[in-house]
Amino acid sequence: QVQLVESGGGLVQAGGSLRLSCAASGRTFSSYAMGWFRQAPGKEREFVARISRSGGITDYADSAKGRFTISRDNARNTVYLRMNSLKPEDTAVYYCAAGGYGSSRQSYSNWGQGTQVTVSS
What we know:
121 residues, mainly beta, seven-stranded mixed beta sheet, four-stranded antiparallel beta sheet, 0% helix, globular
């Protein structure tokens, strides 16, 4: 098992950038693929980005491609989501997840509590 804590969210104007961090506990971080999801008010939690155990493979939702970058530092048990060119539609609670490499929430067995990202127009 791994415990996850997100940080780095906040309020930013459209076009701005944020970098989210997800700190993981335990000694098995590198055995998990990691994903970022988000949930806006009144909407389902949706996939944003994922990264393989070694960090060599990444994938993004269409809404994130070209703007967001997921990365991980296994030595620090941390996964990141750099978000550039933010849009108001990016406003959501962002969740870090650990599990198998996948784009559905069912692929992940461990979830953080989320961090709020608000993008003003």
